[in-house]
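Q: Please design a sequence for this.
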């Protein structure tokens, strides 16, 4: 029997387009035909199939083996209806070989490429993983390797870092990440050619995905500024990295051989006054101005954590006030800082230093303020009011006497805030009321 000429053309097309050799497919087809022959009624226990690639002839040879497995006798035993079986088997074998060949090619292409940057189109997204279409393969991004709170919509084109290539029975599995620190390194290398030619070198990276990244860079050329080369003109280079990271902040700091200087650089944008290093304990005490303390620590301690990861030292940040308190031996306050300053006195009605009247004795009454403090009483004149005692006022012949109630020092509702002249010797009694004052004034 012969293979259909269309089958042979399909095999040649696969060899040209997919790179799958025809001989490889024919060998797999021969093995499939042997299995099909053995399932036929009256078939020999052992057989082999020979396929002529030029003519397309298929011949089945039945075999008889001895106890040692050697072929004792061999004869042709091709079934009459083997053409239909051969065509069906060929279809299955070709499809399987195509899948296997594709898996082998994918594994060969991506094997050993851990750490490379790839670009893919988002195909599927859920809380467990995301699938990226790389064109010739699919990449898997676990949920733990995604940037927190990043939204990946289907059809978006994104970049990712290959962290593992696994060969499995179902085919090679390419695992990618967008939260790995080296992902930022590769993105920066795309924008800064000085990193590729070795002029600038990335010494360390500390990252909290989705929030902030600090990169320490150094220059092997004294004429090249590493920070300026990475940031670019008006931040053009680093801006491309920030856009790919969905607005994650990226700080570029300069690497210093001196550990104290490097820690001061790593705590930027805060200004550091002093850094004390303890090499034995791998600790650093950083002193900053009081108004720079919150900036040095960062939101929820983020700036300090990244600086510690970047330098490899445990960083203890203190303000100048805290440092002075430690030096003078002051006991820390309830929150662990310096003792709290004494509360300032109330600005209105507060006793002056040296007076004996405590602040608790200040009373606010309706209609005015009564100050409960000792005063010098003068003997009232016989016809004067008993509630309000005043010094002798200068005689005013030309002006009429003031109406009743105008000389009262009581402040009525709504007149609070108006200046009312009160003699220093006057005494305002808390028990008096506006009605009583008016009656006394009429009697006088």
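A: Design:
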């Amino acid at each position: 029997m012969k293979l259909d000429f269309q089958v042979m053309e399909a095999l040649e097309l696969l060899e040209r387009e997919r790179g799958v050799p025809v001989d490889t497919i024919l060998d797999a087809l021969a093995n499939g035909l042997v299995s099909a022959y053995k399932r036929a009624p009256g078939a020999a226990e052992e057989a082999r199939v020979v396929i002529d690639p030029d003519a397309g002839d298929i011949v089945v040879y039945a075999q008889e083996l001895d106890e040692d497995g050697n072929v004792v006798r061999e004869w042709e035993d091709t079934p009459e209806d083997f053409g239909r079986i051969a065509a069906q088997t060929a279809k299955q074998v070709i499809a399987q070989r195509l899948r296997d060949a594709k898996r082998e090619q994918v594994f060969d292409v991506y094997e050993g490429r851990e750490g490379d940057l790839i670009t893919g189109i988002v195909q599927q997204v859920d809380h467990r993983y995301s699938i990226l279409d790389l064109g010739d393969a699919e990449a898997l991004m676990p949920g733990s390797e995604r940037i927190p709170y990043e939204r990946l919509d289907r059809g978006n084109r994104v970049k990712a870092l290959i962290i593992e290539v696994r060969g499995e029975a179902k085919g090679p599995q390419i695992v990618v990440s967008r939260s790995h620190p080296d992902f930022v390194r590769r993105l920066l290398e795309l924008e800064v050619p000085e990193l590729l030619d070795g002029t600038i070198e990335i010494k360390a990276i500390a990252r909290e995905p989705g929030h902030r990244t600090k990169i320490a860079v150094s220059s092997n050329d004294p004429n090249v500024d590493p920070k300026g080369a990475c940031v670019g003109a008006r931040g053009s280079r680093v801006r491309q990295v920030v856009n790919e990271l969905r607005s994650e902040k990226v700080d570029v700091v300069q690497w210093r051989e001196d550990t104290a200087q490097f820690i001061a650089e790593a705590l930027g944008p805060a200004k550091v006054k002093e850094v004390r290093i303890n090499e034995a304990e791998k600790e650093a005490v950083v002193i900053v101005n009081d108004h720079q303390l919150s900036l040095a620590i960062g939101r929820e301690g983020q700036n300090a954590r990244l600086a510690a990861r970047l330098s490899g030292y445990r960083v203890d940040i203190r303000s100048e006030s805290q440092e002075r308190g430690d030096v003078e031996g002051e006991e820390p306050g309830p929150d662990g800082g310096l003792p709290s300053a004494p509360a300032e006195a109330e600005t209105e009605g507060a006793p002056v230093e040296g007076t004996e009247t405590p602040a608790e004795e200040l009373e606010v009454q309706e209609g005015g303020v009564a100050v409960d403090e000792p005063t010098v009483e003068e003997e009232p004149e016989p016809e004067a009011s008993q509630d309000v005692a005043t010094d002798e006022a200068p005689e005013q012949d030309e002006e009429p006497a003031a109406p009743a109630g105008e000389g009262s020092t009581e402040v009525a509702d709504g007149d609070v805030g108006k200046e009312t002249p009160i003699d220093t010797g006057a005494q305002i009694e808390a028990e008096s009321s506006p009605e009583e004052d008016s009656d006394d004034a009429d009697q006088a």
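Q: Thanks. Anything notable?
A: Residues 5-110 form a domain with the N Utilization Substance Protein A; Chain:P; domain 4 fold (CATH 3.30.1480.10). The chain has a mean pLDDT of 75.
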